[in-house]
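Still learning folds. Look over my entry:

…
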Amino acid sequence: MESCTGTAHGADNSHIFYRCWLPDDVNQATAVLHIAHGMAEHSKRYEIFAEQCVRKNIAVYAHDHRGHGHTGAKDMLGHYGDVNGWQMVLSDMNELQSLIRSNHPGLPVFLMGHSMGSFITQGYVFQYQPNLAGLILSGSNYGPPIKYRAARLIAKLERLRKGPRYRSKFFEKLTFGSFNHRFKPNQTNFDWLSSDLTEVRKYIEDPHCGFVCTTQLWCDLLKGLASISTNQAFTKLPTETPVLIFGGQEDPVGHFGSGLISLANQYSSAGVKDVDLQIYPEGRHEMLNEVNKTEVGLHLISWIESKIN
């Protein structure tokens, strides 16, 4: 296996950091998977799964979103930008897709987004309508636009009160404060991520994980969430593109399974012909870091292979 890093150029001349994992003989690759990570984490956390993919001759790329990982400056973690942040992260996604297709012409391209990355991924697909062999959404959710508009109003008030770069503990508690309640007695503040305490500890000890995001990022993200949750938005995905939605039954982000079911129903209602839903019993938010992560990874690879054979 060959691993590499690089940078792509964002629309505003920023540098978007990415990682790739390739078969030793890149000509043996049968597909490419592009991964968009979640909030307050980064691309390297998908390395174990990427290695699984490469063993099956699936090349993998993953980039760090603005305000995250090596794309985000140390003092700007959790901040997309002062203006137009949502559009910028969608544009960055497009730049990576262009780079992938240039490096691997003719190969089928799959796109997977986890949590926040699943929302960015949908925003990108709805706006740019890329030619994908499949769309994979992990740890995701669906809610009506009015829910996100109401939350954005609170975020905007907090931004007005404290400024766009303020890291609001109040808003953090409002959004994530109840996530650990189901897992008492809690061993950490992030038990909701995984039942594998070793993986949770890795997250806690990682300086590029677990930071508090700015009021501006929340305003950007919630605006994006409202835009991708309309019935009209779902009609912009080509109905022939296969969709896989997966997550844990105990994931608070996915409303303990019900949010994943609602999301799958939205795609089916929009006329998408091939929608698969996989909910793992006892799984929490990060299924690729759960105790059964090897099984989950193999299931994802099997799904990808079924779409290219």
Remarks:
- The radius of gyration is 18 Å.
- The chain has a mean pLDDT of 95.
- The chain has one domain: 2-143+231-308.
- The CA atoms of residues 35 and 62 lie 5 Å apart.
